[in-house]
Amino acid sequence: MKSAILSILRQNELPVSGAHLCERLGASRVAVWKHIQRLIALGYQIEAGPRGYRLLSSPDRPFPWEFPGREERIVYRDEVGSTMDVARDLARQGCPAFTAVVAERQTAGRGRLRRPWVSPEGGLYVTIVLRPRIPVLFSPRVNFLVSLTLVTLLRRDFGIAAGVKWPNDILVAGRKLCGLLSEMEAEGEETAFVNVGIGLNVNHEPPRIRPPAVSLSQLLGRRISRNEILARLLDDLEREADAAPWEGIIARWKKHTVTLNQNVRVATGKEEIRGIARDIDPFGALLVEEPDGRMRTVLHGDCFL
Predict the structure, then answer these.
(1) β partners of residue 190
(2) Local structure of 275: helix, strand or coil
């Protein structure tokens, strides 16, 4: 009902009468009034006058009804420990592919190696459930697909020269714009689901960290609609996942990488590996040529340029 009301109001610059809304929606005046009051309480500026209702502005919050056709697959929370935890529970319960758990704030957001991920208001914090029909051995390709899709969107729609850094960061001129984290569960040798968490700096000033971070609003000098970004990402990702051959994902990802042929230091938690990043293997591992010429295969770790 909220989605339908907003759709009608957005199609009309002039006020829409209550009688017209009731007729279009097949609902009583009381029901329409209650939904409009709820929308106002959630931050929508709706002018009510003798001629009817007029939408003045909408909050930039990813409420389910802001994504027509996806309402049942958008799970919104004002505050949550981690969107990854909620998405894991939903995936185990059988939620459909491309279910997205999005939160305004995370109190226990995390990055790689369970490091805390600071999640101030203004960012886009979402975990997307994917159900690719691929062997577990190739499940890391899902993370590559998501980062590739997001970088392509940023370049195409916002003119931002974003690049991907192995294994899970998106950078702009050396500054971190986005981090990704994936979790996988299997059924035998097949992938049951892969959940990819995304923390994208959008309309806030990121904390002072090393290496430095940046947000979309800082890069573009204006506020950006998080709803718009999420809607486009979900549409692009669903299209890519349905159409793209999985064996070509890493080759496409490498066209936008800032990691290869660079001097790197990779911290795995057990050791540090230094050398030149030479390639990504078919399973998503980083191939590092050490100073003595030996080639190391690094399956996971934090990579520093």
Answers:
(1) 135, 187
(2) strand
- The answer to pTM > 0.70 is yes
**100 pLDDT above the threshold of 90:** yes
pLDDT at 117 exceeding the cut of 80 = no
User: Do 133 and 15 sit in the same domain of this protein?
Assistant: no
Residue span of the structural domain in which 225 resides: 64-254
Instruction: Provide the 3-class DSSP secondary structure of residue 192.
Output: strand
Q: Is the pLDDT of residue 214 over 70?
A: yes
- Tell me which amino acid residue 105 is: R
Q: Which of 166, 81, 163, 171 is nearest to 127 (CA)?
A: 81
What are 133-152's pLDDT values in tens digits?
Answer: 999 999 999 999 999 999 99
In 3D, which of 127, 131, 153 has the Cα closest to residue 142?
A: 131
Do 241 and 299 lie in one domain? The reply is: no
Q: Does one domain contain both 152 and 247?
A: yes
